[in-house]
Amino acid sequence: MTFQQFLLILRARYKIALLVLLVTVTTSLGVSLLLPKQFTTSAAVVIDVKAPDMVSGMILQGMMAPGYMATQVDIINSDRVAKTVVKMLKMDQSAIIQKQWKEATKGEGQLIDWLANLLQKDLDVKPARESTVININYTAADPDFATAVANAFAQAYINVNLDLQVAPARQYATFFDDQTKEARAKLEKAQQALSDYQQIYGITSADERMDFETAKLNETSSQLTGIQGQTTDSQSKRLNVKTDTVAEVMQSPLINGLKADIARLESRLKESNVNLGKNHPQTQRYEAELNSLKAQLEGETQKITSSIETSYQIGRAREKQLLDALEKQKKRVLKLNKQRDELNVLRRDIESAQRSFELVSQRASQTNIASQTNQTNIAVLNPATLPTTPSKPRVLLNTLISIFLGTLLGVGLALILELKERKVRSAHDLFDALDLPVLGIIGSATSLLPGKKALT
């Protein structure tokens, strides 16, 4: 079908197309005028996604997520917010609404659920582009009711959002309170264990006792070393005392004097033996004095030997005492080491319990504060105002749409009728019908084919 044929069909059936257009526009206009007027109002809320947490002071990364705004829109559209609006407006307490609910549902289900579904049908939530503002639109036949519901949805959203933040904090607060009590009990138990251990073993300061006992052990060890040296020296003198090479013997003035006197008497005795004879009284006197000096020398040497032996025995006894004392001191130090290790374990238990108690107590304090907060990062930017003009029906828009649709319907109907009853309206139609060449066009049809002349 050419455009010329299309125009010829419209010219031939324009009455039908105009009739369809008129009926469509009239019907649309009548319906628009008969429909009840609807009023739409909007409340805007703003979300501060960069607001720090009131307890921790940190910016929550979840608020920066791409789906955060979509989640907030879903919260506003949720049944929980709608039910909160019903309770705020006390709609479930109205006798008229209760009667309407019974008539509509025959008493089945819950009134608050029915009202929430009705409110959600006329609710339109739209987030603003590239911002954190959300527009809450509500449409109703009564402008006052629409305004009240829009503002109620904004406030209910804030309340529900706050409750969503506070409810987990309340659960955490209860949990951390129990954990704090348990941590305090563990700390007190650890402190009591340390106190009982100190009382049982009489320990006031393990470090001071340890220092004292260690110093005493070192001192005993030093004394033992000294005594062992003296005992070794006494033992060596004991073995060499008969050889007269012991220092005490060699350095004794009395023994040296006796030896000198013995040497002089021996010299005189020899002279007397030679000059006077062996039986001479002088010789015998010298011999008696010599024997007396030798006996005295033997006695003095024996005294020194006895003294060395006594020193050796005393040294051995002292060495044994110091060995026993050293062994006891070692056991005491080892016992103190064990007690100190046990004390350190008990102290570490206290420190661990203290850190755990402080950490849990801090968390309990934070969650307790968070559970009592009444602030949120959402605020009403623009409350809903009373609309002065209805938003529905849109008479002008509906009329324009009906003109467009009526025109399409009229043209479509004309084409359908033409296809059912095809007529020759131009040379092209005749050519299409007979499949014969057109030799000429006569009559008024020449005006429809520009560039061609009529045959005469």
Automatic annotation (TrEMBL):
Residues 4-87 form the Polysaccharide chain length determinant N-terminal domain. Keywords: Cell membrane, Coiled coil, Membrane, Transmembrane, Transmembrane helix. Signal peptide: none annotated. The keyword Coiled coil applies. It is a multi-pass membrane protein. The chain crosses the membrane at residues 395-417. It is found in: Cell membrane. Residues 339-416 form the Tyrosine-protein kinase G-rich domain. The keyword Transmembrane applies. InterPro entries: Bact_polysacc_biosynth/exp, Chain_len_reg_EpsF, GNVR, LPS_length_determ_N. Residues 255-356 form a coiled coil. This is Chain length determinant protein EpsF. It comes from Rhodoferax lithotrophicus.
